Amino acid sequence: MIVRISEARVRPGRFESFRNMITTAVREFPARYPGLVDHEVLLAPPETLIYVSRWRSEDDLVGYAGENWRDQPVILPGEQEYLVAPLQVRHFTLASLS
Q1: Which CATH number, 3.40.50.300, 3.30.70.2750, 3.40.5.50, 3.30.70.100, labels domain 2-93?
Q2: What is the pLDDT, as a whole number, of residue 58?
Q3: Residue pLDDT tens, the chain, 98 long
Q4: CB pairs under 8 A, 24+ apart, for 34-38?
Q5: Strand order in the sheet with 36-44
C-alpha cells in the first residue's frame, strides 16, 4: 500500500470555498479509481488542507497521478487560483509492526 499526502496552502479568505471544491471533486474518486483503497480530507483552517489517499499498488497510483506520481501533484482544474504556493506531495509505505 502507498499513502499519498497532498498539502495545500490556501489564500486568505478562500478556505471554505476551496474545501467545498476539493470535497466535491474527490467524492467521485473511489468510483473512478478502483485502486484507491481509502481517502480523506484533513482540515487545518484557516490555511491548510491535506488530502490523504491510500493506494493498493504503484500501478493504481500511476493510473491516478501518471508516470511522474512520485514528484508531481495532481492539480484539479481551477485549483491553483486558491493556492499561495504549489501543492506539496509526499508518499509513504506502511512499515510492518511484527
Answers
A1: 3.30.70.100
A2: 96
A3: 999 999 999 999 999 999 999 999 999 999 999 999 999 999 999 999 999 999 999 999 999 999 999 999 999 999 999 999 999 999 999 888 88
A4: 34/60, 35/59, 35/60, 35/61, 35/63, 35/64, 36/60, 36/64, 37/1
A5: 36-44, 48-55, 2-9, 88-93
SS (H, E, C) 9-34: EECCCCHHHHHHHHHHHHCCHHHHCC
C-alpha cell at position 36: 484507491
